Amino acid sequence: MSSQPPHPALLIPGPIEFDDQVLQSMSHFSESHVGAPFVKTFGETLTMLRKLFQTEDPASQPFVISGSGTLGWDQVAANLAEPGDDVLVLHTGYFADSFADCFETYGVKATQLKAPIGDRPQLDEVEKALKEKKYKLLTVTHVDTSTGVLSEIESLSKLVHKVSPETLIVVDGVCSVGCEEIQFDNWGIDCVITASQKAIGCPAGLSIVMASGRAIKSFQSRKVPPTSYFGSWKNWMPIMQNYEAGKPSYFATPSPQLVHALHTTLTQITSVPLADRFAAHRKASQKVKKAVADLGLEQLAAKPENQANGMTAIYLPKGMTPPDVLPKLMKRGVVFAGGLHKQIATQYIRFGHMGVSVTDPNRDDIDRAIVALKDGITEAQQATDLSAR
Amino acid sequence: MSSQPPHPALLIPGPIEFDDQVLQSMSHFSESHVGAPFVKTFGETLTMLRKLFQTEDPASQPFVISGSGTLGWDQVAANLAEPGDDVLVLHTGYFADSFADCFETYGVKATQLKAPIGDRPQLDEVEKALKEKKYKLLTVTHVDTSTGVLSEIESLSKLVHKVSPETLIVVDGVCSVGCEEIQFDNWGIDCVITASQKAIGCPAGLSIVMASGRAIKSFQSRKVPPTSYFGSWKNWMPIMQNYEAGKPSYFATPSPQLVHALHTTLTQITSVPLADRFAAHRKASQKVKKAVADLGLEQLAAKPENQANGMTAIYLPKGMTPPDVLPKLMKRGVVFAGGLHKQIATQYIRFGHMGVSVTDPNRDDIDRAIVALKDGITEAQQATDLSAR
User: Fold this and answer.
1) Which of A170-179, A309-318, B378-387 has the lowest mean pLDDT?
2) Which GO terms describe its molecular function (chains A, B) (predicted)?
3) Which of A5, A29, A226 sits opposite B29 (nearest CB)?
């Protein structure tokens, strides 16, 4: 029995439903942020992140900072790039535009390589772009929350290492870490930024970053100091290293409650093989995508190899808009999200299938949502037909 | 009966002890950050902040952003100052040095006006400084968490308005909002930055800012765009205005759980006259300060008019260091903090007396802490005497 009161199942692409124990950790009694018990909790949390990212290189550096996923962009732009640097932003939707904005804020020149909606830049296009100009780093949105498009990180990273070996590979994993595999070391990734509230299954409020030894070296050899203060690794790196070494340290006050919740969910995640977790997400995703196809609906990500495993962006039947459908889903106890990609926001809805809704065998969120989607769309169609008479 | 398990009373100058209801709000079930229920909660929270700051000017703009108090500095440096601007930083301890660092990060020239440890810059010194150079803004730490020094905001603001009327008045209220009076409108303040985890009584993880209509106008007439992305008011202002108007809006995902907790504590705070709240803090502070004097100990803030009402920084007897005393207090069930001011960190301890520990009549935290302090110091003295033999 859940200790949470009855409520509609939150099946948007983040925040997601939370495990009872994780939520209870949010109510942890007050502790000093520099006292031994919390230092231990924070240190263990950082160490568990290494497992989640599958990195065993001691030079890799995790960061957990109060903020949202967006703060990860500032960390990249202000620590890994310098004013005047060129960076290449692979564009799969809303989030690349914003990441590019962030770079420009810090005086970094962002070149976007855009794919048509629902697709991702192809490797040969990336290769061509990398040969045309020297880029300090390349960013890729692993799963674009606005389109449900999955990018292929391993082959992309291999390509970058071959064609432009000095270019750092930065992955926006806000909607992928915890539900899509990331082999940080094996794939040669330099930085992944993510947030607490998606497939990691912790309430929102934490910016989570993993940086490679190579990224840290690049940071340490900057010509100018970091261009953000709150997001500066110069300020945070000693703090993270001290916490992980069990030593109290202070730059800005962390959120003990959120860190406790992150500790709880990471303990759960790392207690089973990661491969099982990713397989569970693939299986649930296949079920959702089959149901969507059975309803005669199409995904924004048309090609199967482009489709994320933690969410599905679904085109509505012609003439139907999110406000026609979302309240009918809510009535049936499930919350989906509307469109986010500016050009087509009124034409589609988003279904998040991540975390406990997928991995907890006592939950039937996904099955209920599939039924609700079918019934809700049917009801909306009937209403549309009636109003068209 | 508290629903929290037995634990040592956290009496550091933030985070502080939390009310049961506030902590329970941290476990709120997952909600969409753009769904009607949460939009209402967030909107009401912003409106209650106006009450806490005693501002009725509709042009005042509250901000609540995931982050720590430090993010407020970035917001000031990146939105209210421009690269090349001069700003005057009144120095009462550790936090002015860091705020100045933050300004320099954003290319803003910070001039510090320093006071001796335990004191604050005097009005005639401030007047002289303001007459020497044109400053875009002046910052003052209302209560310096490193020294327990209270600054006098009303007369300072009056002086700035008289001597340099174009200079914006920025108050670092991280350790003052909720326990020291701030009449935002009446005193003519332009910006107060604070955090959730001190006298506001909400767990850490939120940066809270109130900006005046004048500050917003100054921001809107910038020559260059804001120099932070995550901390940019250009990105956040429409979001805050929409939430307060009951309209969903998205820039970066807020933390619904933390905002619920903030909503709960602000509901409690604004349900009684603010004057009573400030009086309760003054009363508890007087009790603590009398006990400190009775023990023959001195405060860092020697002059009564310099002494904060939410914390006390206490010099230890000569030869005694925080590690001699803090474990003896912990053994007695109370947690104090060590020194933070770099030059004298080993010579003093800090006692926070804010929030429910002061306002909840069912709690005896302060009385217990006073007894523990007396007994702990005595025990430490005996140990020192023994080892000196």
Assistant:
1) B378-387
2) alanine-glyoxylate transaminase activity; L-serine-pyruvate transaminase activity
3) A5
